[in-house]
Each structure stands twice: as C-alpha cells, then as structure tokens.
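Researcher: Quick test of sequence recovery. Tokens follow.
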C-alpha cells in the first residue's frame, strides 16, 4: 500500500512538473495579443522594409546615415513594443509616449549592462588569439559569445518589465532560469533558432550582391519580420511564465520527491 501511494505521489509530482509551464496555452495567448495589434505589425513591417531597402543604397553616400536611422528606429521600437504587449497583459492601456518614458531609458541601460561585459570579454579573447595565432581572424567569437549570453539572459528583460526596475533584473532573471532550466529548454531552442536567423540576416547584408537585389531584399525583409514576431511572442510567453509560475518550480518538485 505504501509503495503504491509513493508511486502515485511520484506520478502526480511528475505530471505537475510537466504541466508547470503550459507553453501551448501561453503561445495561444501570445498569438492573440500579436494579432489584435495590427498597428504594431505594420510598424514591424515598415522597419523591415526600410532595413531591406537600404541594401539598394549600399554603394551610395546616403547608405550609412540611412542605415543608422533605421537601426536606431529598430532599437528604440523594441522596448516600446515590449511595453505595449506587457501593458495589454496587465490590462493597462497607456499612450505610446508614456510607455516610452516608462520603459525605454531603463531598458537601454539594462541592455548596456547585459552586453558590455561579454563584448569586452570576447574582444579580449580575440586580441589574445590574434596575437598568438597570426592566421586567426577572430571570426564568429563575438557573435557566439553574444548568443550564449542572450540564452543566459532569457528571463532578464521580462523580469525588468514585471518589476519595473533594472535593479536585480539580471541576477533575478539568471536565477529563475537556473531553477527552471529543464522547463525552459524548448524556449532556449527557439531563442537559439531566432539568434541563428538574425546572424544569417547580418551575413546576408554583408554579402549583398546588387545583381540579385530583389532576392536579397525579399529575404532580408522576411527574416527580419518573422524573427521580430518570434521575438515578441517569446517575450509574451516569458511574461506569462514569470507572472503565473513559482520561481522554483523545477527545484520544488525535486525537493518534494
């Protein structure tokens, strides 16, 4: 009887752990939120189109100024769109200027704190490798370092939006991931695929061939647009996870077992 009871308890705990993150339900919520905000979709499409069209001016003097403007628009749009989706989840409806004032400064400072150390670390490694191996070009080290840290920082930005402050967001996000690593595996794989797609986009832009201009522009636009949608869907899913689940779900199940 005791053995049967123990097995039943273990099965219940296992089922609870498997159902701790209802990713399918969160994905459905995310798709509904994204679909209902057509203005955001149009804006993402506009940025993607402008980004793709700048390739046609690659050999022109106006390429770099225009590319900088498009890049800044993309960077500044990201925390605002995150804020729009987050406030919809919270059932708030603030204006765009208020969302920008609330989230953009803290977001940009958080990004600097997140990625400046790994950039510095990768630069040191590249410098050391180039100095010791003359034929070494350092290709890919910075990109791989940033991808690895983006996986480590999976919950950092959602933590910032929920807490409303960047203080403790990095340590809190990393701690949550470490306690829920097995549950987060599908999302980690999705982020890895997303980052790979963005690296392909950057490589494509660096090897742009004017003779295949239309193909490159279409591919550039599609990669940017769908990668952006996936990024925002992942953000929404992570917000739901942080809001609705205990921070030690994986560990608590193991401790109880």
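Model:
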């Amino acid at each position: 009887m005791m053995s049967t009871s123990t097995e039943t308890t273990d099965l219940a705990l296992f089922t609870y752990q498997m159902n701790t993150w209802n990713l399918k339900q969160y994905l459905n919520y995310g798709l509904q939120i994204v679909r209902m905000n057509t203005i955001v979709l149009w804006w993402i499409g506009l940025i993607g189109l402008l980004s793709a069209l700048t390739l046609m001016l690659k050999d022109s003097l106006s390429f770099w100024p225009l590319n900088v403007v498009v890049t800044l628009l993309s960077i500044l749009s990201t925390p605002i769109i995150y804020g729009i989706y987050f406030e919809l989840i919270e059932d708030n409806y603030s204006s765009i200027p208020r969302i920008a004032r609330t989230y953009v400064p803290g977001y940009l400072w958080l990004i600097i704190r997140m990625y400046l150390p790994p950039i510095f670390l990768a630069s040191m490694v590249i410098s050391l490798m180039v100095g010791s191996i003359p034929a070494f070009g350092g290709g890919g080290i910075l990109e791989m370092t940033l991808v690895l840290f983006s996986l480590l920082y999976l919950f950092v930005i959602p933590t910032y939006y929920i807490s409303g402050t960047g203080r403790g967001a990095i340590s809190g996000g990393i701690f949550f991931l470490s306690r829920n690593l097995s549950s987060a595996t599908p999302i980690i794989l999705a982020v890895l695929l997303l980052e790979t797609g963005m690296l392909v986009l950057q490589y494509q832009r660096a090897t742009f061939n004017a003779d295949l201009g239309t193909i490159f522009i279409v591919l550039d636009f599609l990669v940017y647009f769908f990668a952006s949608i996936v990024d925002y869907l992942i953000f929404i899913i992570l917000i739901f996870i942080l809001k609705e689940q205990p921070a030690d779900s994986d560990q608590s199940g193991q401790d109880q077992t």
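The radius of gyration is 21 Å.
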